[in-house]
Amino acid sequence: MRATKSAASALAITAACAITAPIFHHVPLHDFVEYWTAAHVLITGHNPYSVGEVMGSQQAMGWSEHQPLMVMSPPHFLPLLIPLGLMHSYVLARLFWWSLSVAILVFATSSLWHLYGGDVGRGWIPLCVAAMFFPVWHCLAVGQIGPLLLLGIVGFLWLEKRGHLLMSGGALALTSFKPHLFYLLWLALLLWSVQRREMRVVFGASVTISLGLVAAIAIDPGALSQYLSLVRSGYVWEYSSGVGGVLRSWLAPQSHLLQFVPMLPGLLALAIYWCKYRVDWNWRDRLPMVLTLSVLTAAYGWPFDEVVLLVPVLMIAAGSIYDGRKLRTFVWWLVAMFVASLAVVLRYGDAGGMTVCATGVVAYLVFDSVLVRKPVTEAEQDTLLPA
To answer: What are the tens digits of pLDDT across the range 175-222?
Structure first.
């Protein structure tokens, strides 16, 4: 039976790859092209953070925009691009990236389902939830690194729960590839570490990031200075996203400071949340809200980044599976979020689209906490699903 299942799984994967590969010949150039070109610029000994060099590589592939898509992740991310640089076929690299992303998503969603007490016999449910979550489709379509960020959060939760604090910090270091999205999470970690006088998580993350930076400098000695030059250039101001981007589009497109205004209520919300739960802080229960607030109020972010919000979404799903009323509410909410996110992205672009899922998740978390405290009436008990 095991051999049959393994053979069937291998056949399914092979068929999926065989079907997907030709499709990538016709897929427009999206975010994956920034990783592909940066990887090839890097292994040839040039500057992967050079707008001019990357632009030339992307134009050779058919890129027609006035600006190239640049890798904005810090230098310790660069070593992970080496496998792409060794692939001469763009389609093969895209297929590899897509397959790896799907595998990580399957592993991460299954792990979260178990972490939050989901029914082991219903392992298909987290996959269905992920399939109905709009950021997952957006992320896979453009080839972004959201699954890798999600893996870092899941690894942190699992390892911290088991007391492996150094390793949990190493896993959380993956979120430093887009640190602006997780600024509240890192601040909460610092507060937690100081309060408990426990610095192993921070130390583990610092060591992992340092090792990645050393590897990047070994490959490209000027990586750090090249990255700082890109950050200081005007390239980053070419794009606006998230709540800050909406404010810029409404009030003053050229006002860069408006991009960071949402961080102020984010910091205030964290302060209130920390004061309320700091005495019995548990990362499994508290991280979903902190993560969602951080993504919602981040200075920069795109709808595909919201794939990390599978953490609170699957926590809600696992807690709703045995309650008919909550389950129906959750299903309708998930469908509404998909439709709303797609509609806003198509109508207003990614800047507005970034706000939909995060706002919806925050609202549901607040609603869910109220619903949990509300007593279940005798009539409602008849709707509960059997355990």
So the answer is: 999 999 999 999 999 999 999 999 999 999 999 999 999 999 999 999
pTM (global) more than 0.85? yes
Long-range CB pairs of 319-323 (<8 Å, 24+ gap) are 319/116, 319/117, 319/368, 319/372, 321/118, 321/119, 321/122, 321/125, 321/385, 322/384, 322/385, 322/386, 322/387, 323/376, 323/383, 323/384, 323/385
Q: How does 328-339 read in b/e, with b if 16+ C-beta sit within 10 Å? A: ebbeebbeebbe
Helices (H), the chain: 2-23, 32-43, 51-60, 82-85, 90-115, 124-131, 134-142, 146-161, 165-172, 183-196, 200-219, 223-232, 242-250, 263-277, 283-297, 310-320, 324-348, 350-373, 378-381
| Residue 160 pLDDT | 95
Task: Give dist(CA 21, CA 125) in Å, integer.
Answer: 28
As for how many domains the chain has, the answer is 1
Residue 382 included in any domain: no
Residues in CB range of 366: below 8 A, 6 or more apart = none
Tell me: the pLDDT tens digits for 305-326?
999 999 999 999 998 888 888 8
Residue 384 lies in a domain: no
CA-based Rg of the chain, rounded to a whole angstrom? 21
DSSP-derived letter for residue 177 is G
Tokens 């902190």 map to which residue?
290
- What is the crossing angle of helices 283-297 and 310-320, to 10°? 130
- Report yes or no on 240 lying in a domain: yes
pLDDT above 50 for 382: no
Contacts of 73 (CB under 8 A, 6+ apart): 145, 177, 178
Residues 272 and 31: their CA atoms lie apart, in Å, by 36
pLDDT in tens, 321-333: 888 888 898 999 9
Mean per-residue pLDDT of the chain: 86
Domain containing 40 equals 2-372
C-alpha 291/C-alpha 312 separation (Å) is 8
How confident is the model over 112-130, as a mean pLDDT? 89
